[in-house]
């Protein structure tokens, strides 16, 4: 179970600017979206058992066009574009490599992440201009840059 808390404010108050993940990588607190414990991330024991790094795991997911998403929060309809924009920004942030502003966004992955195969098609035209840049789509895959 994940509970929403303003951990950024807590870390700021304590003077903490970076945290170290379970693989020993440091991350700036202001760039984090979520912090999970080992027991909350069900794949941790498996990755550790087979000595697979997080970077390798994410690369494999991208290669096979799999996605990582949180269950029991997806909806079939958005109340407004704010919800869609927040979800897209979360996907973008979770999948952005440090050396690029562009994220590869396979339509099947983003649709699964959003909770419906038609969700993106229904609401993409409602996203305000300037929020997201998109390179031309090829085979259901496009690269996007979100202006956060």
Descriptive tags:
two-stranded antiparallel sheet, 2 domains, 148 residues, alpha+beta, 5 strands, three-stranded antiparallel β-sheet, Phenylalanyl-tRNA Synthetase, Chain B, domain 1
Report on this structure.
The protein is built from six helices and five strands, in the order αββαααβααββ. By secondary structure, the protein is of the alpha+beta class. The protein folds into two domains: 1-52, no CATH class; 74-148, Phenylalanyl-tRNA Synthetase, Chain B, domain 1 (2-Layer Sandwich), CATH 3.30.56. The longest helix is centred in the middle third of the chain and has 15 residues, at 81-95. Mean pLDDT is 75; it is low at 72-76.
Total helical elements: 6
Helix content: 25-40%
Mean pLDDT: 75
**Might you state the CATH topology name of the largest domain?**
Phenylalanyl-tRNA Synthetase, Chain B, domain 1
CATH architecture of the largest domain: 2-Layer Sandwich
Radius of gyration computed on alpha carbons: 16 Å
Strand order of the largest sheet: 3-5-4
Beta-strand content estimate: 5-15%
Largest sheet: 3 strands, antiparallel
Distance between the termini: 27 Å
Structural class: alpha+beta
Regions with little confidence, pLDDT below 50 for 5+ residues: 72-76
Q: How many extended strands?
A: 5
């Amino acid at each position: 179970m994940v509970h929403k808390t303003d951990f950024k404010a807590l870390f700021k108050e304590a003077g903490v600017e970076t945290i170290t993940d379970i693989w020993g990588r440091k991350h700036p607190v202001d760039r984090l979206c979520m912090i999970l414990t080992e027991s909350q991330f069900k794949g941790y024991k498996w990755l550790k058992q087979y000595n697979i790094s997080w970077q390798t795991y994410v690369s494999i997911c991208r290669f096979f066009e799999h996605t990582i998403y949180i269950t029991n929060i997806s909806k079939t309809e958005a109340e407004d574009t704010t919800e869609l924009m927040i979800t897209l920004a979360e996907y973008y942030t979770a999948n952005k490599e440090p050396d690029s502003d562009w994220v590869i966004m396979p339509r099947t992955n983003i649709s699964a992440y959003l909770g419906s195969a038609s969700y993106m098609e229904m609401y993409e035209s409602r996203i305000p201009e300037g929020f997201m840049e998109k390179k031309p789509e090829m085979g259901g895959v496009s690269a996007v840059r979100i202006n956060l």
